[in-house]
Amino acid sequence: MQSYFMAFLIGGLICVIGQLLMDLTPLTPAHVLVLFVVLGGILSGIGIYQPLVDIAGAGASIPILGFGHTLVSGTLEEVAKTGIVGVFSGALTAAASGVMAAVVFGFLMAIIFNPKG
Amino acid sequence: MPTDKQQIINQQQQYQNKVKKVSPKPPLLKNTIWAFVVGGLICTLGQFFQNSFLDLGVNKKDASALTSVVMVFLGAFFTGIGVYDELGRRAGAGSVVPITGFANSIVAPAMEFKREGYVFGIGAKMFVIAGPVLVYGMVTAFTIGLLYWLML
Question: Coiled-coil regions in this chain (chain B) (predicted)?
Fold first, then answer.
């Protein structure tokens, strides 16, 4: 039960930060998505994001910050194992299932459905 | 000529000020609460899938990956049937920031530009927003990875 509470709380708060950026600055949703991916990557790189994932679970991994974290932590793991090759292979290896799902499901839904109105 | 330009700029500024006065302020508190609740609920749903996969004996990493896959599917599906954008009108960042919003950013423009064909319509427009996200995410990971390698 506690895992649900933490996911709700932290996930909600991350979205609040995004909302404040959208309401108080000229940033569009696209800008917020890009900013959050980069931010998630940096927080992951300096070792802050993994502890947050340990605490908040899906509350930290489902927001797009978590995608940046996946890319960077995957890279660092591969670099530790394989050296310079990991710099090129790590990110996409770790993010493969998410990217594959986004492209394939996105393509299918766009073919099946038509926009409203 | 320069004075004409100046005048036009002045008029534009006056107009901008008028618009600012007349247009209603964004209801900040309401938007924030919507973003918190909807964003929080989407993450809670993600936690439910993650816990379920863990209960089924899937290892932690795969459970995380499968959760992303399911959430991306849901985001894409509910965009397809027109529900997600309806939700987004109220939830704002609560529907944008979770990974379901990433799926939404792929399906919505792809659907919209379907009539421009399978290559330049669906194929290209899918990445109007997802493209920048992937580009900047990958460049960030590459840079941090390179720095880490240099420090090893």
Answer: none
User: What would the pLDDT profile of A26-53 be if each residue is shown by its tens digit?
Assistant: 999 999 999 999 999 999 999 999 999 9
What pTM value is reported for the model?
Answer: 0.89
Nearest CA among B71, B135, B75 for reference residue B107:
B75
Give the range of the structural domain holding residue A26, as residue numbers without chain letter. 2-112
What is the ipTM for the molecules in this complex? 0.96
Tell whether A117 is covered by a domain: no
Instruction: Establish, for the pair of chains A and B, how many residue pairs have beta carbons separated by less than 8 Å.
Output: 273
Q: How far is A91 from chain B (nearest CA, A)?
A: 6
- Interface probe, candidates B62, B67, B97, B107, chain A, greatest A C-beta count within 10 A: B97
Say how many domains are in chain A.
1
| Tens-place pLDDT, residues B70-101 | 999 999 999 999 999 999 999 999 999 999 99
